[in-house]
Amino acid sequence: MGWATVAAYVVATLLAVLTIFRQPGRQRIFWFCLAALLLLLAINKQLDLQSALTAAGRCMAQAQGWYEQRQTVQLTFIIVIAAICLTLGLTLAWIMRKELAHIWVALIGLALLLAFVAIRAAGFHHFDRFIGYEIGGLRMNWVLELGGIAIITINALWLLLSDRKTRHYPD
Known about the structure:
This protein has helices at residues 2-20, 25-47, 49-64, 70-95, 100-122, 125-131, 140-166, and strands at residues 134-135, 138-139. By secondary structure, the protein is mostly helical.
C-alpha cells in the first residue's frame, strides 16, 4: 500500500502542477506551494522519514532520561502541531479569502494530510493503535492519508474540468 500512496501523491502533484497553469493570481501560488509540498510528502513516504524522526526522538528520550514521561511530550507535540496546522489553515484561508470558493476543498485535504503526517511522526502509541485499526480490510492510516490526498485531487480535477468547460475558443 506504500507504493499506492506514493503513486497517489505523485498523481496529486501532477494535477496540482496542471492547475497552476490554469488558475489566476494567488491561486497559482497556492497550487505551486501545494504541488511542492505533495512532492516532498511523496519523497517522505518513499523514504519513511517520519519513522526515522520517531526513532531519533525515542533515542533522545532514552539518552536524556525522560523516556518514561514521553507520553506527555508526545501529547504536547500533537497539541502544538494541531494548533500550528489550525493557525496556518486559518491564516491561509484569510490570505486566500477571495479565492476560497475555488480552493476550500484542497485546504481541507491539506489540513487533514498535514495533521495526519505530523501526528504520525510523533509516534503516539494510542494514535498508532487507532491508525492501525482495520475496517473492512482497510487500515485507518490508509483511509486518512489517502483521503487527504483524494480531497486535494478532487479539487484539482474540479478546477481543471470546470476550466475546460468554461473556456471559449474562437470559431
